[in-house]
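Schema walkthrough. Field components (list of strings):
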Amino acid sequence: MLTYMATLSEAVRAGRLGLFHLPEWERRRPVRPLYVTSELLAWADNTQRLHEVIIGGRTLFERMAQFLCDFRCSSDVHYGDIRRMLPTKAGVWRMYPPGLRIYGWCPGRHAFVAVPAAVEADTKRDRLLNDRKRDEVLRFAWSVRLTHTILTGDYLALFPHQG
Amino acid sequence: MPSFRTKVSARRVVYLALSAQVERQLREAYARKFETGQATQSSIADKLGIDRSAVHRRLTGRMNMTLETLADMVWALDQAIEVRIGDATGPAAQAGAERHLAAHAARAKPGVTRDILARAGKRQRTRAGDRLDVG
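Field assembly_structure (string):
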């Protein structure tokens, strides 16, 4: 565990975070960084429902991968795709891929650290799940000494239009 | 770090690439129209005689559209379609493969990117030469 105020690069070197690499079907070049935890990727790989539930011809797993690709490569992040969680002063954001929720924080403008995720249906069934996931993000940021990188602000402050 | 790509077959990749392109281009076309005040989801729904929620599902890729549905959306957005099916070893595919090779190389060992790209270029030139000989 890191025992001092760390940077994202140090968390990457320590193996706690990694840059999300684009899958082979994505031909665009990335324009914004997206960091993910190995736990999140393992969750996506090992959660059977993500590979069985199909929305619009694609599995939740494929949807999640495409959503993360779009975040990395699109010229703009759509307002409906990422929203702040309450309380806003905590600086935790939630992404909205079809059928899923991904939680994390913005360490800079047009940047995101994705920590845990959940199946949308589970968040409807368990009303406290979102709160637990938000707290998980904050606990993770604290454990890697990155709480000072959590930016607060609204959508236009953190994802200003680049045109 | 575990990778997403271990789960996706080469056959599936073609479908994912196609559906991602269609979804992205539809969304971008809609965003352009919406920003200039020329279209809303409601106006498209009215034009097509369907519910607004159906337009939302199509724009967010939450349904597997038929060619007819896709054509309807393109028409409602005053856009045109261009479909191009090419050789998997053609220039576009090569460009994508090179970007991917470069990304792999950068991940595995910084400094080897140039070598791998050079090898990819050599392979491409060899294929082009083969085609010339055969032709």
